[in-house]
Amino acid sequence: MFEKFRFLTSGESHGKCLTAIIEGLPAGLSIDTDFINSELKRRQQGYGRGDRMNIETDTAEIVSGVRFGKTIGSPVTLVIYNKDYENWQKVMSTKAEDQTDEKAFYTYRPGHADYAGSVKYNRHDLRDILERSSARKTAIEVAVGAVAKLLLKHYGVSCKSTFLQIGQGKNEEEFRAEIDRAKETGDTLGGKFEVIYGRLPVGLGSHVHWDRAIDGRIAQAVMSIPAVKAVSFGNGENAYEITGSNFHDEMFLSDGKITRKTNNAGGVEGGMTNGEDLVVKVVMKPIPTLRTPLKTVDSSDMTETEAHFERSDTCAVEACSVVAEARIACVLANELMLKFPSDSI
Ligand SMILES: Cc1cc2nc3c(=O)[nH]c(=O)nc-3n(C[C@H](O)[C@H](O)[C@H](O)COP(=O)(O)O)c2cc1C
Q: What domain range includes position 276?
């Protein structure tokens, strides 16, 4: 599949740093580091986050691809240092001679990658799986997404997120009450939110092949965020109960331009943006690490026990929405660059 905007990330949750290399950005794009860091801050905030957010204030360092504030066409490398690393240097050492059992754990955490990951990669100490499956890696993805957003902003594209439901709560006050209640009982919560990108050109994506449909690409990008369990477009999640005459967005003319009175399609028809707002709805499952532990199995002696607990969030829906914005920004930036000349701005 031909891609213009590509990136790879590396880094463990308690390792030295997280890194990303972005390839394909046009030369001449202004890189506002304050904006990148403000996005990182947004990811760390939100009611219900755990203690780690007090330890770390993430900032990204740009180490290649940018000169005097602008991209120069070469790969852009971003680094976020883990502030907590000094306490983990021994446990996360890359050297064979430093081998230790400190912080090793063997009880699978239900809802996490521990079991499948340890079978797949043949690892005994489940920390080998936790360290990369942790949502910590989404910090560097948000930094990459912020760069993609700078490109989108250059072309006038807008972005916002709205929280729709957390537990039974449907407004800010109720969200907080739900989260407080869950925290008191050692439980956790997920939630539902929507991300809206506006002022997109018509025709990003394509109807000609399944792997070029923009809704498919966005669904993959968002569904693979840790803890995301459902993704839909516009009113898609209710489409099964609505008749065609009520679901499809009729077209009208206003000053010679096509307008719509509804947006049940969420801005996508035939795998392409149609000029309406792109509306992506996302459901995050409850955080799987519970202070009141879940029943599980100890892999070291194959007995039933309780799950390992490690510092954790009660609810991370706000952070998840920032990650979803970032992932969608990357898909849209790629599509924009495929559609328009993109060697330079
Ligand atoms: C921003 C964000 C923060 C998260 N924080 C935690 C956390 O503190 N504790 C936890 O157990 N899971 C947390 N998760 C969810 C897990 O990483 C995720 O459920 C797990 O890796 C298994 O992946 P899956 O749910 O996609 O199957 C978080 C997810 C996101 C997106």
A: 6-339
